[in-house]
Amino acid sequence: MTVTLADVAARAQVSPATVSRVLNGNYPVAASTRERVLKAVDELDYVLNGPASALAAATSDLVGILVNDIADPFFGIMASAIQAEIGGPGGRAGGERLAVVCNTGGSPERELTYLTLLQRQRAAAVVLTGGAIEDAAHQAAMDTKVRKLADAGTRVVLCGRPPAPETGAIALTFDNRGGGQELTEHLIGLGHRRLGYIAGPEERTTTRHRLEGHRAALAAHGIEEDPRWTVHGRYDRRSGYEATLELLRRDPSLTAVVAANDSVALGACAALRDSGLRIPEDVSVAGFDDLPFSIDAVPALTTVRLPLAEAGARAGRIAMGREEAPPGGIASVRGELMVRGSSGVPRVS
Amino acid sequence: MTVTLADVAARAQVSPATVSRVLNGNYPVAASTRERVLKAVDELDYVLNGPASALAAATSDLVGILVNDIADPFFGIMASAIQAEIGGPGGRAGGERLAVVCNTGGSPERELTYLTLLQRQRAAAVVLTGGAIEDAAHQAAMDTKVRKLADAGTRVVLCGRPPAPETGAIALTFDNRGGGQELTEHLIGLGHRRLGYIAGPEERTTTRHRLEGHRAALAAHGIEEDPRWTVHGRYDRRSGYEATLELLRRDPSLTAVVAANDSVALGACAALRDSGLRIPEDVSVAGFDDLPFSIDAVPALTTVRLPLAEAGARAGRIAMGREEAPPGGIASVRGELMVRGSSGVPRVS
DNA sequence: TCATGTATAGAAAGCGCTTGCTGTCACGCT
DNA sequence: AGCGTGACAGCAAGCGCTTTCTATACATGA
Q: Which of A48, A88, A120 sits opposite B50 (nearest CB)?
């Protein structure tokens, strides 16, 4: 039924070994022979059996990309950049690799299971994106898994994720703390003294780092933080909307709202508008990430731009061994403050 | 070095066959034996060799999802819904399947190559999302490939894509034409008579269908279309911005701009604002898809909601054989007109 | 009691490919 | 003439698993 290597060999009047070598191109084959083989391949419409060759060669051309939420452009942009470098068909890379993205939905178990599945497939490389989960047990499990993968020859790269020392993984980490601090300092510089903060889910490293940056800025300027000023939520618009209403309820005198990311900030804007407040005259708003839509908000969102595409591309190259790993296996990637219309001088109260 | 089935068998004092059967659970194994085996698996930290079992069983647990642009939430939302149904770890499905999304970037070659790669991996199913490319040669090549996949036992589902008759693929098609028509009729109903249209890339079926719907609405109301009123571009914000400026240049008296999708519409809004025009007082704007951010535009975007998540989920279930295919293998999925602030009665000229 | 059935385990034959090793041949050198 | 050498090509041994067929051990009914 299905065409096999042997069929091609028979048709080209050579041994299966020769066909294999022509197809893999890592052994000298006379031009005339090669041509005959390729002709047979074409005529029979032969397609290599992936599992069989992976088994025999003990390697596979699968590369996994783990993302928290594939519907979120934050991950989409990174995944796209990674995939472009990995190769996939038409990528910059030579050999054809199957770059696949796996959606964990932010669930620790799925994260782990996908890693096992990729291990099972003997993936050539794995790129993990997005913040890690701060649960000791889960982190230990992940580290073990990652080390096992690395030991088995799978290259593991963390993109926008905190380093995992001793696991053999290369880390490209976003400087969320620095970005958060810079952003809040910008607002303080404008004169804000009462700033609400809408944080992401508590257990994520990204959440903690951004919040720490925010607090560092406050501390640096001698602003004592009111516990009521911080609300935790999810990384989505809805959460931003609700959290903003809550902040307003707790302290209507806030002059600025800093959001965990741009989606949350958009929700915050909507909530403020619905509460009859103007942006930035009454309340300034700031986001994080600088996703494409942020510039379309009205007013345009002040935020911290993360070089998602660049970082992804670099992670992809490192995963393919086409770029050297950073010294120590860890690199910090900085964000850039983008000051736009949503932040302004606070009203005089 | 690596642990194999045989190692587990030795440790559990059973034959490899038994271990395999315990792991696959499709053959009676005494409870005590099963337990012994599982214990050994656990102790040795055994991970099945995917390629080997795929080879031996002549099936794989890989399911491919092809998308045009993974950074676009339109695809992200569908992919997410599909993947949730396919299973992947923690999905509703039983067995653990590796649902992988492949980013074609809208390139015909990559589309084809990914299909070959998935064929090579003997994928269990493949879901193709997004509009097809209207190039006879490419379409023929795709159809051939799809038929070959289907013949080899891979279930192929088209989600938001025109049917491919005779290929054995199941199609869930979006009614782009109907949605486009309804949308434009809404604008005509408001009193608009001079409507600009920003279309997507010419060669995509989605582009053509939406445009046809638009034109059908115009024709139905006896409005003669000025060729200057249509501009083609890409499906992104930038393109919408530029196209709008072009439309304004060609005919400053337009009272409405209909965009190929929401991202384009956002670009259009930005261009109008930058041109000193108010929305909707001076010019109404409409989009398509109703992506999450559309409601955050100011004013909120009038658009056609496509049930991306629902359609994706259904496609996923069909791909897994957990839902019956629609009669004739083809189903049309309707959009729903969402009237919001960006469309209004035109100014009296 | 013996034939028969039922549940469970093992032996072994591949699945389709890669690759180390072993030819074979034509050359060119001494 | 004799032989080392390089360039190809083929043989055959797996890679780690699944699965068919067979074997064993009881339990059962006549």
A: A120
> CA–C1' distance A26–C20 (Å)?
14
CA atoms in the 13 A half-sphere facing the CB of B29? 21
Contact A116 B47 (CB under 8 A): yes
Tokens standing for residue B200: 């997507």
Question: What is the overall mean pLDDT for chain B?
Answer: 94
Clarify whether residues A164 and A263 are in a common domain: no
Name residues 54-113 of chain B with a Cβ under 7 Å from nucleic strand D: 55-57
pLDDT band at residue A92 under the 50/70/90 scheme:
very low
Regarding whether B194 and B230 lie in a shared domain, the answer is yes
Token pair, residue A40, equals 């047979």
DSSP B284-325: EEE-SB--GGGGGSSSPPBEEE--HHHHHHHHHHHHTTSSPP
Residue A202 has pLDDT above 90, yes or no: yes
Question: Of B94, B92, B93, B145, nearest to B123 (Cα)?
Answer: B145
Domain shared by A69 and A124, yes or no = yes
Judged by CB atoms closer than 8 Å, whether chains meet at B101 and A101 is answered as: yes
Confidence category of residue A57, pLDDT binned at 50, 70, 90: very high
Provide the pLDDT for residue B303.
Answer: 98
Q: What is the pLDDT of residues B188-230, one digit of tens each?
A: 999 999 999 999 999 999 999 999 999 999 999 999 999 999 9
Which H or E run contains A173?
A: strand A170-174
Q: What is the CATH number of the domain that holds A268?
A: 3.40.50.2300
Collapsing DSSP to helix, strand or coil, A66 comes out as strand
Strand A155-159 and strand A170-174: pairing? parallel
Instruction: Let me know whether A292 and A187 are in one domain.
Output: yes
Domain that holds residue A264: 176-304
Structure tokens at A306: 């993360």
In-domain check, residue B341: no
Q: Are residues B33 and B127 in the same domain?
A: no
B188 and B299 in a single domain? The answer is yes
Quote the mean pLDDT of chain A. Answer: 93
pTM of the model: 0.91
Mean pLDDT for the stretch of residues B308-317: 97
**Can you tell me whether residue A104 is helix, strand or coil?**
coil
Q: Which two tokens stand for residue B211?
A: 């445009």
Does the C-beta of B24 come within 7 A of strand C?
no
Residues B273 and B313 in one domain: no
Beta-carbon separation of B88 and A69 below 8 A:
no
- What's the number of domains chain A is made of? 3
Residues B95-122: what's their mean pLDDT? Answer: 90
Tell me the C-alpha distance between B13 and B6, whole Å: 10
Categorize the per-residue pLDDT at A349 as very low, low, confident or very high, splitting at 50, 70 and 90.
Answer: low
Whole-number Å distance between alpha carbons of B38 and B328: 45
Choose the closest CB to B70 out of A76, A89, A98. A76
For residue A90, is pLDDT > 50?
no
Mean pLDDT on A325-343: 97
Q: How far is residue A209's CA from residue A163's CA, in Å, rounded to a whole number? A: 13
CB of A341 lies under 7 Å from some atom of strand D = no
Instruction: Return the closest-CA partner of residue A288 out of A333, A328, A338.
Output: A338
Domain assignment present for residue A55? The answer is: no
The pLDDT of residue B49 is above 70: yes
B61 in any annotated domain: yes
Check CB contact under 8 Å for A49 and B292. Answer: no
Task: Give yes or no: residues A195 and A295 share one domain.
Answer: yes
Whether nucleic acid strand C comes within 7 Å of the CB of A21, the answer is yes
